[in-house]
Write a structure and sequence with these properties.
The complex is a heterodimer of chains A (308) and B (565). Helices cover 77% and strands 1% of the residues of chain A. The termini of chain A are close together. A two-stranded antiparallel ribbon of chain A has the order 1-2. With 308 residues, chain A is mostly helical. Chain A is built from 13 helices and 2 strands, in the order ααααββααααααααα. Chain B is α+β, with helices and mostly antiparallel strands. Chain B contains 16 helices and 20 strands. In chain B, the strands form 5 sheets. In chain B, strands 12, 13, 14, 15, 16, 17 and 18 form a 7-stranded mixed sheet that branches. A 5-stranded mixed sheet of chain B has the order 8-9-10-1-11. The longest helix of chain B is centred in the last third of the chain and has 19 residues. The chains are: A mainly alpha (308), B alpha+beta (565). At the A-B interface, helix 2, helix 3, helix 5, helix 7 and helix 11 of A face helix 6 and helix 12 of B.
Chain lengths: 308, 565
């Protein structure tokens, strides 16, 4: 197990290096001159040329990449053109808001998605099953920005019980709508995933054996079926958490939530290469870490899984 | 002093103008001003910087204007310059090349230290220093200051043309007379900052500004909130407001929703109201009379690259000038624009009312003339005009509709126009390079309200002679016209100067045809009913000193369900 973890960590370093290289090249393939966006659109070509030099953008690409990687080894992520501040503090300053939203979003995914999935699976074809499946269709199809605005209008304007966007220092009343919007789509997906997984498991031999032994439905489902269907949920949960922690652009934008997702988009539109690199690397680190944790958690959920 | 290409990037804001248009309100002034209270604003994006040497966008300027001062400022809500930190308007030498300023002796930075001429010399040299990497380095507006080029080249550490005569006397020498130099001094790049604050903040000065203005930065939480407080050391008339809270990250949808629910005072003050919100507010009897309107100092046009086929043929360019239905474009903009057949913006003195040298109809068209000209250029049924690609920046919901309207107009004269909407950075990239883009939909918004700003950066030979990042995207160059522009730039006789600029306009519009001039826009903004004295400025994106508030500050918590004032 220890050897496996070390191997995964080494792979992680390699993956992050690959992500850095690819992002760096893509950032330079995007049309546009970062120096011009840095300077302002009315800046003269002479000023832009000087800024180009000051930002080191007139050096060969491989020199810039080498320099970037060397600084990265010293945990120097560079200086953001857009925000005029070092990149790593800029990301870390916004990360708590993103983390809060991500955790709350996952909470809603689970708290809504799992009961629906379970109840649908144990009564397939029932009114409840059909009704919840319609809900999951709608929730999956609804674009988050539309759903977010709808919820804002409903709870902020029609029933003015919650604030219309903003962070409010992370207070629960500000968090509720963005987290719910984030969680609803995932909840619908989880419900369908769990329903399908449970339906399969409920037809398996060991469940039939449990029924034959005369166990109560509650015991069959909770003790025998659900634990075995959790692998698929945990796998998705890990991916979701990593993805959410890397920034949820649409939700953050609609609700004026000051997370790293919106910051990343701003960086892309303003060709803020150091911040784009930093955010992508940070996001990649979170996603890869989440993957490793999920893989390791399999060994606890399913005794048959062994890593050597 | 505003951004250009308002079709494009939203965060860079839109300009405003004093002269009222369409008979709508120009101010929310009513009742007697009261001091105290907090004004709440919102910005969609975080501010880039509050370092005046770096910021070149209206978001940054909205706040930095409240924190800093320069030698000169605009009088009230006009385009007339008046002394600010200067004790009086400068003494200008007869050759127009030397400006001598006397400074007020009662001006203090918010840190309590008095401002002297040395501070201006330091601030300007820092602002122009290539190491600062600010947009004014390398030339641009300040390039004519004697000795600036040596600083740009690295052969000098100071600018010899900026002289401290005594602690309260400053002399500036120019290489050539420039009648717009006073406007240039009034731009934020001319603001004064204290050396010790820069030294203390290091590379974080952008977030720790110290100025002389009516407000000081109290708090800046990146991505969340900017708080300004009244500056106790301010030398001018104290502002009414005690505090200004700028909430960061609110999209227009959310910002206007908040304002209508008493949770915000002014959404995105430096951007015109987006079309969707404008339609909603202007049809609401409770809000429509609260909308402020003022003409922007801007011009939108189709640029035809004079070095690329088929636009290297003057007859083709002339024909194109007869095709576009400009009235339709104004309709798409919800009437928030006026047809412009020239190259100067309506509010400026160089603008000629009802200018129409090509004899276009009320829509800005003459289709028969266009067809005749195309025939003269050698295009007919047997030699059809080649399909053209119209490149435009995709900025908002209006961008595609405006471009599509132009496309339909050209269909009427048998010309196929394919639309190519691009992200702003890509648009700038390909239109700024020579021989890359033949036809583009473009705009220009003032840096300062002087006719030279609508010629020098975007129509002269010098502006065309670049390899990248050019702003003269028609790559138009007429040396005779350049001579007129040079003459006008230094002409001290205002009336004569205006005539020269009008002659210049005639050459561009009715002889060379590098553009199809389209329209100039009208700024619209709105504030919550508790806001008074809010007025749109011809140059600045936001003026806070005239504003006072009544009633309690908007609560970010849920409000009453009222959607009316």
């Amino acid at each position: 197990m220890t050897a496996y973890i070390i191997r995964r960590l080494l792979w992680m370093v390699l993956v992050l290096f690959g992500v850095s290289a690819i992002t760096f090249v893509i950032a330079f393939l995007v049309p546009g001159d970062p120096a011009r966006l840095y300077a302002g659109t009315n800046a003269s070509p002479a000023a832009i040329k000087i800024i180009h030099h000051q930002l080191g953008l007139d050096r060969p690409l491989w020199t810039q990449f080498g320099d970037y990687m060397w600084r990265l080894l010293h945990l120097d992520f560079g200086f953001s053109y857009r925000y005029q501040t070092p990149v790593l503090p800029a990301i870390l300053q916004r990360f708590p808001a993103t983390a809060e939203l991500a955790l709350a979003g996952v909470f809603f995914e689970l708290i809504i998605g799992l009961p629906i999935g379970i109840l649908s699976a144990i009564r397939p074809g029932s009114f409840w099953d059909r009704a919840t499946m319609v809900f999951t269709f709608v929730a999956l199809a609804a674009p988050p920005f539309w759903l977010g605005l709808l919820l804002l209008f409903l709870f902020g304007v029609v029933l003015p019980v919650l604030p219309i966007g903003g962070y409010g220092g992370g207070a629960p009343q500000y968090l509720l709508l963005p987290a719910l919007t984030l969680g609803l789509g995932g909840a619908a997906y989880y419900a369908r995933l769990l329903r399908a997984s449970l339906l399969d498991i409920l037809k398996s031999d060991y469940v039939r054996t449990a029924w034959a032994k005369g166990l109560a439905e509650r015991r069959v489902v909770l003790r025998h079926a659900i634990p075995n269907s959790l692998t698929v949920i945990v796998s998705q949960l890990g991916m979701d958490l990593g993805y959410f922690l890397a920034g949820v652009v649409v939700i953050e934008t609609v609700f004026a939530w000051p997370g790293i997702g919106k910051q990343a988009v701003d960086a892309i539109f303003t060709l803020d290469i150091p911040l784009v690199m930093g955010t992508v690397l940070f996001g990649a680190l979170l996603i890869v870490t989440a993957n490793v944790i999920v893989d390791i958690s399999y060994t606890f959920l399913d005794p048959r899984v062994r890593y050597s | 002093m505003k951004r250009r290409f308002s079709l494009a990037i939203a965060s860079l804001g839109v300009g405003t103008m004093l002269l009222s248009a369409c008979g709508n309100a120009a101010t929310t002034t009513e009742g007697q001003p009261v001091s105290g209270g907090t004004l709440t604003l919102s910005f969609k994006d975080d501010l880039k910087t509050l370092d005046p040497a770096i910021g070149y966008d209206t978001d940054s300027w909205s706040i930095s204007r409240a924190i800093y001062n320069g030698l000169l400022a605009y009088k009230g809500f006009t385009t007339q310059l008046e002394p600010d930190i200067a004790a009086a308007m400068p003494v200008i030498s007869p050759d127009g090349k030397t400006y001598t300023f006397k400074l007020r002796k009662d001006v203090k930075f918010s840190n309590g230290r008095g401002v002297t001429a040395d501070d201006f010399k330091y601030s300007w040299e820092r602002m122009l220093d290539p190491k600062t990497a600010g947009p004014m380095t390398g030339g641009s507006f300040w390039g004519s200051v004697h000795g600036a080029q040596e600083l740009f080249d690295g052969t000098a550490t100071h600018i010899s043309g900026i002289k401290v005569v005594d602690p309260y006397t400053l002399e500036i020498d120019l290489d050539n007379p420039n009648q717009s130099f006073l406007n240039i001094l009034a731009m934020p790049f001319g603001f004064v900052i204290p050396k010790e604050a820069v030294a203390a903040a290091g590379e974080d000065y952008a977030h720790k500004p110290i100025g002389t203005g009516p407000f000081v930065l109290d708090k800046w939480t990146p991505g969340q909130l900017i708080v300004l407080k009244k500056n106790k050391n301010y030398f001018g008339t104290k502002p009414y407001l005690d505090e200004v809270d700028a909430q960061i990250g609110l999209t227009p949808e959310v910002g206007y929703l908040r304002m209508q629910n008493n949770q915000l005072d002014i959404p995105q003050p430096d951007l015109t109201i987006p079309s969707a919100q404008y339609i909603s507010l202007s049809s609401n009897p409770n809000w429509k009379n609260r909308i402020l309107r003022n003409p922007n100092v801007d011009i939108y046009f189709l640029a035809m690259n004079v070095n690329m086929k088929p636009f290297d043929n003057k007859l083709v360019r002339q024909a194109f000038n007869n095709v576009v239905n400009k009235a339709n474009l104004v309709k798409i903009l919800n009437g928030r624009a006026v047809i412009n057949n020239g190259i100067q913006a309506p509010p400026m003195p160089s603008y000629v009312q009802n200018y129409n040298p090509l004899g276009l109809d009320a829509s800005g068209q003459n289709l028969q003339k266009a067809k005749d000209l195309l025939k003269q250029a050698g295009y007919d049924a047997s030699h059809p005009f080649p399909a053209q690609e119209l490149v435009y920046p995709k900025a908002n919901a209006d961008s595609d509709r405006l471009a599509a309207s132009v496309q339909q107009d050209f269909q009427q004269v048998g010309i196929t126009v394919n639309l190519k909407g691009l992200a702003f950075n890509a648009f700038l990239d390909i239109t700024g390079k020579p021989n890359t883009t033949a036809l583009s939909y473009n705009g220009w918004i003032q840096d300062f309200p002087d006719p030279s700003d609508f010629i020098d950066p975007i129509l002269t030979c010098a502006a065309a002679n670049v390899t990248a990042n050019g702003a003269n995207i028609a790559f138009y160059c007429n040396k005779d016209a350049d001579k007129l522009a040079d003459q006008a730039r230094g002409d001290t006789n205002s009336a004569e100067r205006l005539k020269l600029y009008q002659q210049y306009q005639d050459i561009v519009v009715s002889k060379d045809f590098p553009w199809v001039p389209l329209y100039s826009t009208v700024e619209t903004n709105v504030a919550a009913p508790r806001v008074h004295g809010y007025q749109l400025h011809p140059v600045w994106p936001l003026v806070l000193t005239s504003i006072w508030v009544t009633g309690s500050a908007p609560s970010l918590a849920p409000a009453s369900p009222s959607a009316s004032p």
